[in-house]
Protein backbone atom coordinates (compact mmCIF):
# COMPACT_ATOMS: atom_id res chain seq x y z
CA UNK A 1 0.00 0.00 0.00
CA UNK A 2 1.16 3.47 -0.82
CA UNK A 3 -0.10 6.95 -0.03
CA UNK A 4 -2.68 8.28 0.50
CA UNK A 5 -4.36 5.26 2.08
CA UNK A 6 -7.42 6.97 3.52
CA UNK A 7 -9.78 9.76 2.51
CA UNK A 8 -8.44 11.84 5.39
CA UNK A 9 -4.91 11.51 4.06
CA UNK A 10 -6.10 12.39 0.54
CA UNK A 11 -7.77 15.56 1.81
CA UNK A 12 -4.66 16.49 3.80
CA UNK A 13 -2.58 15.99 0.64
CA UNK A 14 -4.96 18.33 -1.22
CA UNK A 15 -4.04 21.01 1.31
CA UNK A 16 -0.38 20.70 0.31
CA UNK A 17 -0.61 20.07 -3.43
CA UNK A 18 -3.03 19.00 -6.11
CA UNK A 19 -2.02 15.61 -7.55
CA UNK A 20 -2.46 15.45 -11.32
CA UNK A 21 -1.66 11.74 -11.69
CA UNK A 22 -2.42 8.87 -9.32
CA UNK A 23 -1.30 5.30 -9.93
CA UNK A 24 -3.20 2.34 -8.52
CA UNK A 25 -1.63 -1.11 -8.67
CA UNK A 26 -4.26 -3.83 -8.63
CA UNK A 27 -2.66 -7.00 -7.35
CA UNK A 28 -4.78 -10.05 -6.53
CA UNK A 29 -5.59 -10.51 -2.84
CA UNK A 30 -4.04 -14.02 -2.76
CA UNK A 31 -0.79 -12.78 -4.33
CA UNK A 32 -0.46 -10.02 -1.73
CA UNK A 33 -1.33 -12.37 1.11
CA UNK A 34 1.24 -14.94 -0.05
CA UNK A 35 4.00 -12.36 -0.49
CA UNK A 36 3.44 -10.66 2.85
CA UNK A 37 3.14 -13.98 4.65
CA UNK A 38 6.49 -15.10 3.19
CA UNK A 39 8.35 -12.44 5.22
CA UNK A 40 10.51 -13.63 8.12
CA UNK A 41 12.93 -11.57 10.24
CA UNK A 42 16.01 -11.98 12.39
CA UNK A 43 14.89 -10.12 15.54
CA UNK A 44 18.32 -9.11 16.81
CA UNK A 45 19.47 -7.42 13.60
CA UNK A 46 16.21 -6.65 11.84
CA UNK A 47 17.38 -8.50 8.71
CA UNK A 48 14.37 -9.40 6.58
CA UNK A 49 14.04 -12.48 4.43
CA UNK A 50 11.34 -13.35 1.95
CA UNK A 51 10.94 -17.07 1.39
CA UNK A 52 10.10 -16.47 -2.28
CA UNK A 53 12.50 -13.69 -3.32
CA UNK A 54 15.28 -13.54 -0.73
CA UNK A 55 15.32 -16.78 1.27
CA UNK A 56 17.98 -17.56 3.87
CA UNK A 57 20.67 -20.05 2.84
CA UNK A 58 19.30 -22.48 5.43
CA UNK A 59 15.55 -22.46 5.97
CA UNK A 60 14.49 -20.85 9.21
CA UNK A 61 17.86 -19.42 10.30
CA UNK A 62 19.70 -16.15 9.78
CA UNK A 63 22.52 -16.29 7.21
CA UNK A 64 25.05 -14.45 9.39
CA UNK A 65 24.36 -15.71 12.90
CA UNK A 66 22.57 -19.02 12.39
CA UNK A 67 19.96 -17.83 14.89
CA UNK A 68 16.27 -18.64 14.31
CA UNK A 69 14.08 -16.41 12.18
CA UNK A 70 10.62 -15.41 13.35
CA UNK A 71 7.46 -14.32 11.63
CA UNK A 72 5.97 -11.14 13.06
CA UNK A 73 2.40 -11.51 14.28
CA UNK A 74 1.14 -9.06 11.64
CA UNK A 75 2.84 -11.10 8.88
CA UNK A 76 1.01 -14.33 9.72
CA UNK A 77 -1.51 -15.27 7.01
CA UNK A 78 -4.62 -14.56 9.11
CA UNK A 79 -3.32 -11.15 10.19
CA UNK A 80 -2.27 -10.28 6.63
CA UNK A 81 -5.74 -11.16 5.32
CA UNK A 82 -7.35 -8.90 7.95
CA UNK A 83 -4.91 -6.05 7.14
CA UNK A 84 -5.65 -6.33 3.42
CA UNK A 85 -9.42 -6.28 3.97
CA UNK A 86 -9.10 -3.21 6.19
CA UNK A 87 -6.87 -1.49 3.62
CA UNK A 88 -9.28 -2.25 0.77
CA UNK A 89 -12.21 -0.76 2.71
CA UNK A 90 -10.24 2.39 3.60
CA UNK A 91 -8.74 2.82 0.12
CA UNK A 92 -11.99 2.46 -1.85
CA UNK A 93 -13.14 6.08 -1.30
CA UNK A 94 -9.64 7.32 -2.18
CA UNK A 95 -9.72 5.39 -5.46
CA UNK A 96 -13.21 6.77 -6.20
CA UNK A 97 -12.08 10.34 -5.45
CA UNK A 98 -9.17 10.20 -7.88
CA UNK A 99 -11.23 8.35 -10.48
CA UNK A 100 -13.87 11.11 -10.32
CA UNK A 101 -11.12 13.70 -10.93
CA UNK A 102 -9.94 11.80 -14.00
CA UNK A 103 -6.39 11.41 -12.69
CA UNK A 104 -6.42 7.73 -11.70
CA UNK A 105 -4.42 5.25 -13.78
CA UNK A 106 -4.82 1.61 -12.78
CA UNK A 107 -2.48 -1.25 -13.61
CA UNK A 108 -3.16 -4.91 -12.85
CA UNK A 109 -0.83 -7.85 -12.51
CA UNK A 110 1.18 -10.04 -10.21
CA UNK A 111 4.78 -9.32 -11.24
CA UNK A 112 6.63 -6.01 -11.02
CA UNK A 113 8.66 -6.65 -14.18
CA UNK A 114 5.43 -7.06 -16.16
CA UNK A 115 3.62 -4.03 -14.68
CA UNK A 116 6.56 -1.60 -14.58
CA UNK A 117 6.96 -1.08 -18.38
CA UNK A 118 3.36 0.21 -18.54
CA UNK A 119 3.84 2.48 -15.52
CA UNK A 120 7.14 3.73 -16.97
CA UNK A 121 5.51 4.51 -20.31
CA UNK A 122 2.79 6.52 -18.57
CA UNK A 123 5.28 8.43 -16.43
CA UNK A 124 7.58 9.06 -19.40
CA UNK A 125 4.70 10.56 -21.33
CA UNK A 126 3.76 12.88 -18.45
CA UNK A 127 7.13 13.94 -17.03
CA UNK A 128 9.61 15.76 -19.25
CA UNK A 129 13.13 14.28 -19.30
CA UNK A 130 15.78 15.91 -17.16
CA UNK A 131 18.51 17.30 -19.39
CA UNK A 132 22.15 17.39 -18.33
CA UNK A 133 24.10 20.67 -18.46
CA UNK A 134 25.70 19.63 -21.79
CA UNK A 135 22.26 19.13 -23.38
CA UNK A 136 21.05 22.68 -22.56
From TrEMBL:
<comment type="similarity">
    <text>Belongs to the adenylate kinase family.</text>
</comment>
<dbReference type="GO" id="GO:0004017">
    <property type="term" value="F:AMP kinase activity"/>
</dbReference>
<protein>
    <submittedName>
        <fullName>KAD4 kinase</fullName>
    </submittedName>
</protein>
<dbReference type="InterPro" id="IPR036193">
    <property type="entry name" value="ADK_active_lid_dom_sf"/>
</dbReference>
<dbReference type="Pfam" id="PF05191">
    <property type="entry name" value="ADK_lid"/>
</dbReference>
<keyword id="KW-0808">Transferase</keyword>
<keyword id="KW-0547">Nucleotide-binding</keyword>
<dbReference type="Pfam" id="PF00406">
    <property type="entry name" value="ADK"/>
</dbReference>
<dbReference type="InterPro" id="IPR007862">
    <property type="entry name" value="Adenylate_kinase_lid-dom"/>
</dbReference>
<dbReference type="InterPro" id="IPR000850">
    <property type="entry name" value="Adenylat/UMP-CMP_kin"/>
</dbReference>
<keyword id="KW-0418">Kinase</keyword>
<feature type="domain" description="Adenylate kinase active site lid">
    <location>
        <begin position="39"/>
        <end position="74"/>
    </location>
</feature>
<dbReference type="InterPro" id="IPR027417">
    <property type="entry name" value="P-loop_NTPase"/>
</dbReference>
<dbReference type="GO" id="GO:0005524">
    <property type="term" value="F:ATP binding"/>
</dbReference>
